[in-house]
Write a structure and sequence with these properties.
Layout: H1 3-19, H2 32-43, E1 51-56, H3 63-74, E2 80-84, H4 87-94, H5 96-108, H6 121-132, E3 137-144, H7 147-153, E4 165-170, H8 173-178, E5 187-189, H9 195-207, H10 217-227, H11 232-242, H12 247-257, H13 264-277, H14 281-292, H15 298-304, H16 310-322, E6 326-329, E7 332-335, H17 340-349, H18 357-364, H19 370-388
Helix pairs in contact: 2-3, 4-5, 5-6, 9-11, 10-12, 11-13, 14-16, 18-19
Domain NB-ARC: 47-209
Protein name: NB-ARC domain-containing protein
Pfam families: NB-ARC
Length: 413
Amino acid sequence: MTEQQLIKDIVKVVSGKLKRPSLRAAHHPVGLHYLIERINPLVGIGEDDVRMIGIYGDKEVGKSTLAKALFNHHSHKFEGCSFLEHVKATAGLYGLVKVQETLLRETLGDAYDDSMRLGNSSIGDSVIARRLRFKKVLVVIDDVNALEQLRELAGGKDWFGSGSRIIITTQDRDLLQRYRDVEAEHMYEMERLNLSESRQLLCWNAFKSPVPPQTFAAHVEGMLEVIGEGHPGRLIRTASNLRGKSPEEWDSTIEKLSQAEDGSEGRDKLILNHTVDVLKQLHKAIFLVIACFNGRDKGEVVDIFGHVTESSFNRAIKKLTNRSLISTRRNRIWVNDSLREPSKEMIRAESCTQFQWMRRLDDLVEGSPDEVLQSIKEQARTMCDGFFGDSDDGDSDDGDSDDEEENEDNNEH
């Protein structure tokens, strides 16, 4: 190899690594460094075997956040990388073939050909195995709920080159046990935030400090007792609602949340209702439309709010993301996992006139013929123009100051 060719190869490798985006793991990464140290021996970076690692646990305990942190920490050590988020929702909307194409596009980089369209998932299997067999890759398969998803995206260790690592996140430990290539010693049960870490996360989001002001110390303890420790999304949403609020407003919120139905679902529903109720009308409408179009292209939501300025729309997306209501990546928008059913219930229960059209949109958006869906979108767009077309932000400020915070990817804490 000539010196000139060697330089070209080095430049190609370095530029490829620089192109890899850093994923936003958490705005306030409380406890994340400890978790990375705990799981790194299981991941075994640097060893030559092909290894599949399963991270399992309940909704919103930080599985995706940990996977993103691992991806950011180690991606530069691989020849190709792919983070396949929300696989359950994405496969349901677009089919596994689209997820397979994303895997190939991201791991192959410049070697990916746009003409490389997969006719079906069986073809995708053979193409992935053929193209990645000798390539050292890091792949994260996030939020899987079916064995078929694993078989079509990571069919076997022989699909990938020496040293490859495949990280899987799921709520279902049994699924990992049934998938023969995830060995028992490479399964990791997601550890919840402890009481001290939960307190820090609550305080960071409410006071922008790891400890509360003295006048709020008792209120923080009371809130933790009501909402529980170890649920990052729940902590973030509750704290964001109370940022800048008085002790009396904390007391009122604690009282309301103490009346939640037994179990985490009832508490999540009450927190969601409170979080959305204090939003501006425009931001509330955007959130409810996202709930209808969960996992779809951002453009579909933008189209419905055609007369809303781009800056107002982006400000709404940032606020909803900062409050751990939604997550965005690859120009797609998701309602966070534990909020999907409560948000649907909210749409069905909504009595305000300007939100009535969403009931029909929610009923028809899944599995509807394109022409029917397009008709509903046009009706929704017309109604939104009437309610929000002349307003930049929908109504008066809600008193939150999180718009200056930068937040691109925020899933679980």
